[in-house]
Design a protein that fits this description.
By secondary structure, this protein is mainly α. A two-stranded antiparallel ribbon has the order 1-2. The relative contact order is 0.13.
């Protein structure tokens, strides 16, 4: 289930947009990330080919089971790490930016250890 950082970001963005939009389209992802529609189109094709999303004829994007699992993992890491850094006194904006970088490289073991330590 290992995917690159870019794919993780796209999947997380689809998950987040799905919480506030009735349907998610490539144009919504492009707008949210500030990317060109053509770049997002290529990324969606790659995610579709890897089985992480499905795209309807109308252009609606849905996470598959594997895409949902990756998006949920990255979203949990992002939310937890942001809040943890804020609790340590880091400015929320900086904490969110740092969490976005950390969430892609931290091992599952280290993330679980941090969660366990922080919940004491």
């Amino acid at each position: 289930m290992k995917v690159n950082e870019s794919a993780e970001n796209y999947l997380e963005t689809i998950l987040i947009l799905g919480k506030s939009h009735p349907v998610v389209r490539s144009v919504d992802v492009a707008e949210e990330l500030g990317f060109k529609k053509s770049s997002v189109s290529v990324a969606m094709k790659n995610l579709r080919e890897k089985g992480h999303i499905t795209v309807t004829r109308e252009g609606f994007i849905y996470l598959t089971e594997s895409g949902q699992a990756i998006a949920d993992m990255i979203f949990e890491r992002h939310e937890f790490l942001t809040e943890w850094l804020v609790s340590l006194g880091v400015n929320r904006e900086i904490a969110a930016e740092d969490a976005c970088r950390i969430e892609h490289v931290i091992s599952p073991e280290s993330f679980e250890a941090i969660k366990k330590y922080a919940q004491k």
